[in-house]
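User: Just a sanity check before I run the rest of the batch. Below are the structure tokens for the first item. I only need the designed sequence back.
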């Protein structure tokens, strides 16, 4: 009740709930693709490259006076990292895990260097490491809504093609689909979703929120569409529960959200195992 009363009173909590819903919708849709395609670690590399975009964006803003925000730099860095990973792994035929590791480390290093050479105190940038959904303002919500619209338009508009690429790449190629192009589209969608989630749970925890709702949904649905719908509802529920549980004891909302999601995932696995044992 204390949290509900606070939501009615404070605008920043209302913004946080809306941000959680926007991120949760994209998380459920794109996270389902990520889980089915098994590209979780690519999402991790993209997430850590977001720090490079944040650092460069703030450096250009403070040192050179460019009309750019760190969040806009994050979008550019995430999409760039996704395209680099995709193009190199598809065209150069390098080991994908090597590329992911290199991009992961280089992105973080670039971000740290640009933050270090930018004058001033950067608490807001460093909060992106662990997320702070309570700092999201009205302008941030508009940007999140725009990213959400783009992600949903592409993810649902190209559903048949992306579904084919995720489940059976060879069959999709035999049917005449440009598999490489759709893989790149999927990686870009992942990048945009990562940017949405970074504001909610931070760079370090973004992989968990991207994959846990989809992994839970996959235990109860037999279709990708059903998995997306249930995963979106779960992601929204987890972010809302994280805000509610963390409010009174003043805990980090992002970390609380992930603990709740992780506990739910483990509980589902245990209950399904028990149910399977009882049947036999």
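Assistant: Here's the designed sequence for the first item:
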């Amino acid at each position: 009740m204390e949290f509900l009363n606070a939501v009615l009173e404070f605008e920043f909590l209302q913004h946080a709930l809306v941000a959680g819903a926007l991120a949760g919708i994209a998380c459920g849709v794109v996270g389902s693709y990520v889980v089915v395609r098994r590209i979780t670690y690519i999402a991790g590399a993209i997430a850590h490259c977001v720090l490079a975009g944040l650092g460069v964006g703030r450096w250009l803003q403070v040192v050179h006076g460019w009309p750019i925000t760190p969040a806009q730099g994050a979008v550019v860095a995430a999409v760039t990292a996704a395209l680099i990973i995709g193009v190199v792994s598809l065209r150069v035929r390098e080991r994908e895990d090597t590329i992911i590791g290199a991009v992961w480390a280089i992105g973080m290093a670039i971000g740290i260097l640009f933050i270090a050479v930018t004058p001033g105190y950067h608490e807001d940038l460093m909060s992106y490491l662990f997320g702070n959904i309570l700092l999201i303002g009205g302008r941030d919500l508009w940007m999140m809504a725009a990213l959400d619209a783009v992600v949903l338009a592409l993810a649902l508009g190209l559903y048949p093609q992306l579904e084919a690429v995720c489940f059976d790449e060879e069959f999709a190629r035999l049917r005449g689909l440009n598999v490489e192009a759709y893989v790149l589209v999927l990686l870009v969608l992942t990048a945009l979703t990562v940017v949405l989630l970074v504001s909610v749970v931070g760079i370090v925890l973004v992989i968990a929120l991207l994959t846990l709702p989809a992994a839970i949904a996959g235990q109860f649905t037999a279709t990708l569409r059903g998995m997306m719908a249930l995963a979106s509802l779960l992601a929204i529920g987890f972010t809302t529960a994280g805000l509610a549980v963390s409010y009174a004891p003043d805990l980090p909302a992002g970390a609380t959200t992930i603990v709740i999601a992780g506990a739910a995932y483990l509980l589902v696995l245990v209950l399904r195992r028990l149910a399977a044992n009882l049947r036999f």
